[in-house]
Amino acid sequence: MNELRSVVWSRLRDAGALIDDARFDRTRLDSAALSKRHFAASVRALGAGDPALVAQAVGVSPGAMARWFGHGWQQTAGFAAYAGVGPARIDAIARLGALFNMGVVLVDHVLDTLPERRAALLDALSPVLLGDPSAGSRAGRGDPGVDFVAQVALAVVSGARHLGGRSQDVDKLTELLGSMYRAERSTIEGRRATGPPAPGVWDALHAKSALPSAAQGLLALLGNPAADDTTRDAVAAAADLVGEAFWIVDDLADVQSDWDSGCWSRALWLLHRSGESPTTSDEALRRLLDTGIAAAEGQRLGQVLTELAALPGPSDRALVRPVQAAVRSWVEEMP
Q: What pLDDT digit, counting tens, does each position of 155-190 carry?
């Protein structure tokens, strides 16, 4: 087992937050089954055609897109359980959450690895995520990959508005999506390669990586307008913890690729704040380990997952297990 992976793995195990092999395999099989049942039809419903051709257009594998979709379905269905959504409405909400999760990962993929398409993607997403009512007529850009991501964003926004939830939740969701969009722009414009982090980098990193879970929580609440304050607080608390967990583990897993692409991340920001100035991705990884930042982040990750499991609400199977499984999948990708 590689060193960063070993450090985080041991912290999760010590916290009792590491999902065991049997539950991990079962949760992944459930996610795969959801993808098999819903992914292709949901993509075709957007008018995007063959999912394999769509995946090729955005430079990823169809299997990866299906996994992101399945994970998003599981997580949003889990938030719906916290929100007390009736069984008849869960699939509609989970489908939106699945498309949203897939879209978020695709946006990150394009912005991080396809710099020649960044401007076109941000331009296509701007009217959709900043609330322009003419977005639907302006989504086509001639790039099938960019157009697909814009179609996903438009489907999520319009679908959320048709769920019939509280208008203030729709407004909150719109505000969140705008914050996420502005954070993506900010992290592209304030790249690590251009100098020290600007004062707003930490907040932008948080918005980019942690707010997607808050958005899934709001989608869930839109399915139960009658939810009382206790239920709404439980959804918000769960979303905050899930968002922080994913922010920590994703940025640890991607520390070397983020370094190589010139991005700031949570891990690299903490390393800079500690006074370290590595010059290569290997050195950045080494310094994260030697300074104890990696161990501290692993410990915080275990604490966050423990707090999530302790929240009152539905059974662990609804949300805690899918989150733990997603975290373990990221850990297994660590260098």
A: 999 999 999 999 999 999 999 999 999 999 988 887
DSSP 193: G
Which ranges of 254-290 does DSSP label H, i.e. alpha helix?
255-261, 266-273, 281-290
What is the Cα 39 distance to its own chain's centre?
18
Per-residue model confidence (pLDDT) at position 49:
81
Q: If 0-12 CB within 10 Å is exposed, 13-18 middle and 19+ buried, where does residue 237 land?
A: middle
**Residues whose CB is less than 8 angstroms from the CB of residue 301 and which lie 6 or more positions away in sequence, other chains included:** 8, 11, 12, 17, 245, 248, 249, 327
Q: Would you state the pLDDT for residue 134?
A: 54
CA distance 149 to 102: 9
CB–CB of 189/211 below 8 Å?
no
DSSP state of 61: -
In this predicted structure, what is the pLDDT of residue 137? 44
Produce one character per residue of 257-294: b if its CB has 16 or more CB atoms within 10 Å, e if not.
ebbebebbbbbbbbbbeeebebeebeebbebbeeeebb
| Count of Cβ atoms closer than 10 Å to residue 72 Cβ | 28
- From CA 259, how far away is CA 278, in angstroms rounded? 10
Residue 153 φ then ψ, to 5°: -60, -45
Both tokens assigned to 207: 């918005």
